[in-house]
């Protein structure tokens, strides 16, 4: 495979050839910076056009941008962008040939080259049986090197895609390894071409090596990557790796999409799965593993041997499986984790909002609260205008549920408290009653109320009433596996019917992949946005032929 990688790399300029030919298993940290790929000086390595990089005296920014847009380089970039939008490689190549022609030479920037390479990679992936598009991409990259244009992470990721389109995962992996060595931080997308190409080729060892490199680089796989790894290891009959990856999915995904669920069902139905497991195991260690992990998994490996039976099912309201009778557990959240998470939320909020400290002091005077309401989300539920009446109905409803004598905390932006429907007499009375009760906090202009209601709900371990799925970039800043676990245990979602508001409380069990003490598995599938539809679970059980060490001792005795 590496011989094939070397042959393909020979079509690229020496610096790129050094990148791709370097044996994947050798360390390069001892190499001098000058010998690293893409480390030599570049003549023009930015995306700015000549018109932008040579401004005229007293020229305004708008005039400079207009001149850049209307320059030959700017016009070419606009045409290439249109080709990218339409996935039109032939036209893009014609524009490229005209641009590099001595009769009409146009200096090409990183943006031009990335657009061309992107189109080549798309075409090569669409028709991997034809090498033309991939080879053309490598030829363009060779020209880019000759022009001295410094590639960035996007360039090298596209180059890895071109290698993968040639069914050469070794080359794709070599590119991302050298990318990291050269000081360009690889992203998840950078690893995808190599990982998926190895998996498609059935090379489980190669795919596992890519996964290890991702871990070392701090890049976390998502469901597509974990599903590919599960698929190749399942196909190769590697039960230990499937077990490891199933636990990794438990931590990173918690629930799986239908395609991944089907893949797991196939694994449990396989001969390799029936043969996998310990004939004898220590039940004490299994119990200890369950305690140490907070419940829901033990991590001691497949228990026993025998044919699995697997089917889709659902749980009753208490978390008991309708198929096998196993009762799922609510996995504990360490209080220290909650405290650390609250501190991280506060730190991020304070860095972006000087007013947040005032809110913390206000909470010290008025807290704690059994529930927190994202009033903007509630008041605008399925409507164009804000409704204080509906917010009040939810306030009263959640107070009945929590059986608290104290009103829940209502977070609302100051603009909604002072203007619009707030000026109506009946709404003024509501606002005044909430304020007298110390239950209303109006976030100031310029503040993001999301941080306020999230922080209050976390520090008081209270219910959070909102339909906000908390998926945008603000919540991604938290960067922790704790967040989805916290949401699952604390978020109350709402739906509305003819009878009024329906409160969908957190379940008394954790909606996460669970491994039971007897070795059975329950895997939840994602439910989309339909919170009223029963969630489907994979239930995998078997009649175990082995025995725990304690049971074996009793039998011998």
From TrEMBL:
It is found in: Mitochondrion. InterPro entries: PROP1-like_PPR_dom, PRORP_C, TPR-like_helical_dom_sf. Its main location: mitochondrion. One of its GO terms (biological process) is tRNA 5'-leader removal. Residues 64-275 form the PROP1-like PPR domain. It comes from the Eukaryota. Pfam families: PPR_long (PF17177), PRORP (PF16953). Residues 31-72 are annotated as: Disordered. Its cofactor is Mg(2+). Keywords: Hydrolase, Magnesium, Manganese, Metal-binding, Mitochondrion, Nuclease, Repeat, Transit peptide, tRNA processing, Zinc. It catalyses: Endonucleolytic cleavage of RNA, removing 5'-extranucleotides from tRNA precursor. GO terms for cellular component: mitochondrion. Its EC number is 3.1.26.5. Gene3D superfamilies: 3.40.50.11980, Tetratricopeptide repeat domain. GO terms for molecular function: metal ion binding; ribonuclease P activity. Residues 315-539 form the PRORP domain. Belongs to the PPR family. P subfamily. This is ribonuclease P. It comes from Oryza rufipogon.
